[in-house]
Amino acid sequence: MISVYGASGFVGSRFCNLYPEFVLKQDREERKPRSKDILYLISTVDNYNVHSNITLDVDTNLKVLCEVLDYCRQNDITFNFISSWFVYGETDLPAKEEYRCNPTGFYSITKKAAEDLLISFCKTYKVNYRIMRLCNVLGRGDGKLSAKKNALSYMIELLKKDEDVYLYDEGTPIRDVLHVNDVCKAIKLICDEGNINEIYNIGSGQPTRIGDIIGLAKEYLNSNSQIKSKEAPEFHKIVQAKDFYLDTTKLKELGFSQSISLEEIIKELSDLYIKNGEICCPEILAKQTFNTKFKMMHTKDKVWDENAKTNLKISLIRDVRQICERKGILIFIKPDMKRINSHMREWRDDGATPI
């Protein structure tokens, strides 16, 4: 069993959901580990706190870590620490674990400082450690999307709304992206098989242009958004490398292979529904639950206002997602409401008023 700190975050919660028999979730304010093996994911998520809360990165990334380490002086503990590609800063590509790091933003600097504190502590008390530096992690379920954090997913959300998307430098910057499930699989593999007292990069090991990702998502979504270019702000240039991808040789030597392709990631973020390689109409997937819902909510005497119609549609879409998740179907294009309306009329009970 492994004690998971940060079990409510994007990666932490997915890891716990994928490996429930393997984890012990630490409470938010709990510092003493529940087991000898630790997976530590507590962290801020971007470099922008310097503008609003200048001590937040230090308090979260360093102070809390030290409070946990205070309970880890026994030499039979193994501390698995989740870090970030941000610690490298500007460097030769692909970035290898042994390269000298040059972080610049407050988030990046404190993540590297946390690595150094952990290594020093572990050497002092003869505690084992592993450090894992993650690439850009993508997938549905990240509740903290913004232009600052997980900007790729955020821009795809703009495409769904037909809002214009602005890319820095005409979309030419490159990133290393991996689906959250593959990231969790890699973390589990390193926790099980990785050498102690080593650093591992976790990523696809492939450079991908941001513009290519957004362009493909726009195509899948048939979005009316305009993709435009603008110069990166000076602060962005200071705290983040323009181009980046990881060398993942050490990870692959452990037997890791990517299972969810970049195309599948983009389809998932675009809310497509895929089964056996084919796009499935959400209204067909929902039909098995729709009739029951329709009988409960829709009668020949009921007068439907716009809010009621919208709520029923939202409920239907939620049912689609639940069906897909239960059946293990990858949830990937936004439902075509005209087609859903058509099927509503087709499936209604006799005498019911169609939407």
Spatial gap, N to C terminus: 52 Å
Helix fraction, binned, reads: 40-55%
Q: How many strand elements?
A: 14
Q: Find the CATH topology of the largest domain.
A: Rossmann fold
The top level CATH class name of the largest domain: Alpha Beta
Ranges where pLDDT stays below 50 over 5 or more residues in a row are 273-289, 329-340, 342-355
Beta content = 5-15%
**Which architecture of the largest domain does the CATH hierarchy give at level 2?**
3-Layer(aba) Sandwich
Query: How much is the average pLDDT?
Result: 85
Using the alpha-carbon principal axes, give the shape: globular
The H/E string reads: EHEEHEHEEHEEEHEEHEHHHEEHHH
Secondary-structure content class: alpha/beta
